[in-house]
Amino acid sequence: MRRDLCDGVGIARLLNATLVLPKFEVAAYWNESSGFADVFDVDYFIQKMSGYIEVVKEMPKDIGSKEPFKVDCSKRKGQFDYIESVLPSLLEHHYISFTPAMSQRRDRYPEYARATLCQACYSAIRLTSSLEKKAIELLDAIPKPFLALHLRFEPDMVAYSQCEYPNLSPSSIAAIEAVRVDRKPWTGELAQIWRKRGKCPLTPNETVLMLQSLNIPTSTNIYLAAGDGLMEMEGFTSVYTNVFTKSVLLNQEDFTRMHGNTKAALDYYVSINSDAYVATYFGNMDKIVAAMRTYKRMHNTLFLSRKAFAELTSKGLEGVALTKALWEVHKNDFAIGRGFALPDCFCEFEL
């Protein structure tokens, strides 16, 4: 949500267009829909973007009564010009909705558009006061210092990855099959190729091996930034015993009333304020957390290499040999606290 909004702001500035606050469609993951105002402070956003772009809460009735013309740039490959590609549709229809291109290099925007994007991402977006209060309450409840671990091993994530995991418990297998739909796992040689490309989420047990290879003490306070339904956690918590989750730290009545996007916002807040952040995947959450931590010069951020783990284990490495090899892979990133995927933050030079 945050990433797409930042892109939308930058592109609106490129097109000299007015931005209508979006309604986020998240039904595919959380079976719910929500608006900008459910998570973010609307008035603060509009105020902070003044002078960069015009932002309105709703479309004027004479225009908003019709469906916007849809422009989908998500499948565009390589570099292209939004002004050449999208502006003609905006001029013709006056009201468009668009999906940004995921491959677009934002650092190649003109300076005025980069400054607008940076203002939105790092200055104008903040949680609602009630949600921020809850996030601070959660952060205060975690013993310090602590490491925030973004662990992705929920049933839907495993099903989506199409990876084979032969040693899972029957309950985990059943949970995965319940959400698999038509995304059948790769098998045989194709499964090995897929895994060696780093496409498979690390299991909690594999994550334990990775953390131990980095000599992270088993007494470390770890906050699990993760969705509901993490599987196979018994092996992890038997080694790293000081594990904390929002479901335990927050008032149960409050927690059960929260939507999925609200829970994700809490994880985001805790992650950008943690003493260290370790990610087992490199998805949208990890990218935006890494970018914010870079912007705040909080460089204790590390991405564990799924590709390296797959390559090493495919060679038969295990035990001490495996942990030594994993250390060799990660030691430079770990020593300076910057993961291999941590982006340069061009925004720090724009504000």
Describe the structure.
This is O-fucosyltransferase family protein. It is a single-pass type II membrane protein. It is found in: Membrane. Keywords: Carbohydrate metabolism, Fucose metabolism, Glycoprotein, Glycosyltransferase, Membrane, Signal-anchor, Transferase, Transmembrane, Transmembrane helix. The chain is of the alpha/beta class and 351 residues long. 49% of the residues lie in helices and 10% in strands. It has 19 helices and 11 strands. The strands form 4 sheets. The protein has a 5-stranded parallel beta sheet. A two-stranded parallel ribbon has the order 1-4. Strands 2-3 form a two-stranded antiparallel sheet. Strand 10, helix 17 and strand 11 form a beta-alpha-beta unit. Helix 9 crosses helix 10 and helix 18 runs antiparallel to helix 19.
Which terms would index this structure?
signal-anchor, transmembrane, globular, alpha/beta, two-stranded parallel sheet, 351 residues, GDP-Fuc_O-FucTrfase, single chain, FucosylTrfase_pln, membrane
Span of the ends, CA to CA: 22 Å
Helix content: 40-55%
List segments where confidence is low: pLDDT < 50 over at least 5 consecutive residues: 340-344
Order of helices and strands: HEEHEHEHEHHEHHEHHHHEHEHHHEHEHH
Which oligomeric form is depicted? single chain
Q: Hey, roughly how much beta strand do the residues contain? A: 5-15%
Count of DSSP H/I helices? 19
The Rg value, from CA coordinates, equals: 22 Å
Organism: Camelina sativa
Pathway: Glycan metabolism
Subcellular location: Membrane
Pfam families: O-FucT
